[in-house]
Amino acid sequence: MSVLTRRTLAAALAGGAAVMPLLPAGARAAPGTGTVFTANERDASISAIDLASGRVSSVRMPVAPHNVDAAAGGRLLLAVGADEAGHRSGRHAGDPGRLILLEPVPGGAPRVTAALPAGRHPAHVVADAAARRAFITDAGADALLVVDLGEERIRATVPVGGYPHGLRLSPDGREAWVANVKDGSVSVVDVARAQVVARIAAGPSPVQVGFLPDGSRVFVSLRGADAVAEIDTATRQVVRRIPVGPGPVQVFATPDGRFVFVANEGTRAAPGTSASVIDVAAGRVAATIETGRGAHGVVVCADGSRAFVTNMFDDTVAEIDVGTQTVLRRFAVGRAPNGITWIPA
């Protein structure tokens, strides 16, 4: 392991104990504080938005990052992407994908600490609670990659559906749910066994999944149907489809489980400009918030006070007050921001 990686993981995993969640139970972040990070695919950068000051800082990346996620209680960032040449040409020859580890820097851009192999065409990445394993969808191999972060190597390759894209771990950490864009399914992977245990027909072009905090439901964006499928995790059945805006991409539930935010990207020719807010109990859209052109990524901070949406075609991030369901600020970031994540101050 490289020295930088060892130091980063050692700090995150001090004493070998399980890492705390982004905020301890019962704690609340001050509204509008912390740092938001975006993966900017078109200029190969990660932007950091310091919410207290409003300052935006960016760092150049060795790949064109599509997704970024926080791990180890916000002390570690993971980003995935392919090299710029492969991304621009659409040809992912060999294994150009990389998992980039970054260390957040208070008030500034994060530091790149390591680059690990990540298959042909990595799309999304998440880490387990202890930040010892990362799970990466490889759209170029129709597989889920399991990466040992300590050993810096791929431990398992799990065949899933056609063109896997978004994924999330279940709240108990036992399963990874993977959206397979090209075959309309969601693969459920037993993390301990590295094995698919279920395949659920979700609908046209599923892009991303999002759990309610209690793990009882999964919401799946159906880009090909302008809808979100709601799945009962116990029965593994779709219980309803909820119409949203055009071309929905990422989804994220509020910590109280009352709402699910959906980013509606549309297409480059006809961009979506909004986030749909699903009332979970009612099973319908309760509000539509204008965020910007090409709404793509979405995250809700741990206390539920703010949601953040990347706007791919505006190169911006919209900060939303969840209580009033209004946009408070917009931040200019790098070009074509896709994935987004948040860490506490």
Kindly describe this structure:
- With 345 residues, the protein is mainly beta.
- Helix content is 5%, strand content 53%.
- The protein has two helices and 28 strands.
- It has helices at 3-12, 84-89; strands at residues 35-40, 45-50, 55-60, 64-71, 76-82, 98-103, 111-117, 122-127, 133-138, 143-148, 153-159, 164-169, 175-180, 185-190, 195-201, 206-211, 217-222, 227-232, 237-243, 248-253, 259-266, 271-279, 284-290, 295-300, 306-311, 316-321, 326-332, 337-343.
- It has a four-stranded antiparallel beta sheet, with no helix packed on it.
- A hairpin with a 4-residue loop joins strand 25 (306-311) and strand 26.
- The longest helix is centred in the first third of the chain and has 10 residues, at 3-12.
- It is globular.
- The model is unreliable at 1-8 and 10-25 (pLDDT under 50).
Mean pLDDT: 91
The fraction of residues in strands falls at over 45%
Roughly how many Å is the radius of gyration? 18 Å
Alpha carbon gap, first and last residue: 29 Å
Provide the low-confidence segments as ranges.
1-8, 10-25
Strand order of the largest sheet: 3-2-1-28
Q: Major β-sheet, in short?
A: 4 strands, antiparallel
Estimate percent helicity: under 10%
What is the succession of H and E elements? Answer: HEEEEEHEEEEEEEEEEEEEEEEEEEEEEE
What structural class do the secondary elements suggest?
mainly beta
User: Tally of extended strands?
Assistant: 28
Tally of DSSP helical segments: 2
